[in-house]
Amino acid sequence: MDNKPHLASEPICEEQYAQVPADFPRPVHLSAVSGAQPKLLMTEYKGRFYSPGCTPPEIFAKWDMCEDLARQMSAKSLESKAGKRSHMSELEILDQYLARLIATRWTSEDEARWVIRRVAAMLDWPVPPTAEGHGGPDSSLSAKA
Questions:
Q1: Among positive and negative, which fits the CA dihedral 66, 30, 105, 79?
Q2: C-alpha–C-alpha distance, residues 142 and 132, integer Å
Q3: Are 20 and 139 within 8 A, CB to CB?
Q4: Residue 140 and residue 136: Cα distance in Å, rounded?
């Protein structure tokens, strides 16, 4: 896979979308429009309808960004463990990074938890309990991607 970021508006091929792991969180955007008859907000992509933010290009773009973030955080975690955080356990390091990632609001909370689980999988470190899915419809309970 190339390292160039993908934009949600760029066309993607099925092989790219197939790279998105099943445990990557999908947003849940339930919405309706008022009126006399019930209406549902949907986005059309290639003849299929999706909830807003859930088309294959949008999911792929979010995953691609989170995967890149996980690679960067893996390197930073190893650097931290060898340096200024050598006194901390792997769980404590990842737990601290999770709180910081959530505070940045770069991702949703479920995506941040997925990133930390992905970092743990890349480094073969234990997954902090705070990074486990909370059981909501857009979270996953799998620790490894």
A1: negative
A2: 8
A3: no
A4: 8
Please write the tens of the pLDDT for every residue from 43-68.
Answer: 888 899 888 888 899 999 999 999 99
Identity of the highest mean pLDDT range in 7-21, 78-92, 121-135 = 78-92
Residue 96's contacts (CB-CB under 8 Å, 6 or more residues apart) are: 85, 88
pLDDT digits (tens, 9 = 90+) for 87-109: 999 999 999 999 999 999 999 99
- What is the distance between the alpha carbons of residues 25 and 27, in angstroms, rounded to a whole number? 6
Distance of alpha carbon 126 from alpha carbon 92, whole angstroms: 10
Q: Which of 16, 30, 119, 122 is nearest to 62 (CA)?
A: 16
Residue 11 φ/ψ, nearest 5 degrees: -70, 145
Cβ-based neighbours of 109, under 8 Å, separated by 6 or more: 102
- Sign for the CA dihedral angle at 82, 84, 88, 93 comes to negative
pLDDT at 143 over 60: no
Question: Which position has the token pair 């609001």?
Answer: 105
